[in-house]
Amino acid sequence: MEKENTGYIMSSIDEYFEILDKEAQKRSQMVAKSLTKYLKRVHSESTKFDSLKVSATN
């Protein structure tokens, strides 16, 4: 009986950690997407600034 309980507890722990890993992966992907959008926006803004700066000096 003790062996069955240990096996059940271990499988429950494995399932729990699997769920945590999936949630962590989802959060990481969400952060990566947000960061990518932010960096693209910042890059396009700096490009606009650079073009304005060049046109102002001409």
Helix and strand topology:
Elements: H1 2-57
Explain what you see.
This protein has 58 residues and is mostly helical. The protein contains one helix and no strands. It is rod-shaped and about 85 Å long. The mean pLDDT is 86.
Brief account:
The chain is mostly helical and 58 residues long. It has one helix at residues 2-57. The relative contact order is 0.06.
In DSSP terms (H or I, runs of 4 or more residues), the helix count works out at 1
Poorly predicted ranges: none
Biggest β-sheet strands, sense, barrel: none
Helical content (DSSP H or I, runs of 4+): over 70%
The tally of strands reads 0
Distance between the termini: 86 Å
Strand-and-helix sequence, N→C? H
Keywords summarizing the entry:
single chain; 58 residues; mainly alpha; 97% helix
